[in-house]
Amino acid sequence: MHVHHRAAAVLTALLLPLAAACGDSDQGTAERAGDVKVDSKTKDAKPVETEEAPAEPVEEETPDTELAVGDTFRYTDGVEVTVDSINTITEFGTYDERPDAKDTAFRITWTVENGTGKPLDLDAWSFNPQGATTGGQTTFVYVEKGSKEMAGRLAPSRKGTYTGEYSLPRADGKEVVVEVSRMDDAWMENDNAFGDEPNWTGAIK
Predict the structure, then answer these.
(1) What is the pLDDT of residues 144-177, one digit of tens each?
(2) 10 Å Cβ neighbour count for 52?
(3) For 84-114, what is each residue's pLDDT tens digit?
(4) Nearest to 146 by CA among 166, 126, 164
(5) 199-203 vs 66-68, strand pairing mode
(6) Residues 129/164, Cβ–Cβ less than 8 Å
(7) Mean pLDDT in the chain?
(8) Pairing state of beta strands 80-88 and 103-113?
(9) Model pTM?
(10) Are 150 and 107 in contact (CB under 8 A)?
(11) 150 to each of 7, 33, 65, 124, 182, how far by Cα in Å?
(12) Nearest of 177, 147, 148, 166 to residue 67 by alpha carbon
């Protein structure tokens, strides 16, 4: 009887760290817009010797899931997403929905590049913007002029640029955070699918 309890305890001790590791897996890595890519031919070059300068405080590294507009997030399966811009909508078509005077209508533009070897299901993605100054709930607005719906499938090695149109109360400022989620079947079978999701923060221009 004691042997069975002991075996169960050992098995639990082995499985718990594994489960925790799976749950904390990173979905991908960030490629910052300001990053300088190192040439493979010079990356091992010795640094130039200079006079020793006072040590500067070490800044805490920003998580890969915290990005700015213009940054790219590369999922572990090779798919890349870049939030290109967040701009005020100034032109409307005849049948487009105009926001109330107390709201700001804005358009998020993003680019998806399929670096996998299979078609990518674009219908299984979600781009969810929220206010990032004092909080604030955004509302979807129908604006066809200048928009590009993300739908269908994206072929391997191809990229596409898409938009989403929303409004935010002016009282909530102009800072917006955009959280991106993907639920396509191929990704949901990936061990990293349940890690922290990437989000981009930027001001409505």
Answers:
(1) 999 999 999 999 999 999 999 999 999 999 999 9
(2) 6
(3) 999 999 999 999 999 999 999 999 999 999 9
(4) 164
(5) parallel
(6) yes
(7) 84
(8) antiparallel
(9) 0.78
(10) no
(11) 51, 23, 22, 10, 13
(12) 177
* 205 neighbors 36 (Cβ within 8 angstroms): no
CB atoms within 10 A of CB 186: 16
- The CA distance from 112 to 84, in Å, is 10
| Distance in angstroms (rounded) separating the CA atoms of residues 112 and 78 | 11
CA distances from 52 to 43, 44, 46, 48, 59 (A): 22, 21, 16, 12, 20
Phi-psi region of 157 (alpha: psi -120 to 50; beta: other; left: phi over 0): left
Q: Compute the distance between CA of residue 205 and CA of residue 35 in angstroms, rounded to an integer.
A: 23
Contact (Cβ atoms closer than 8 angstroms) between residue 93 and residue 143: yes
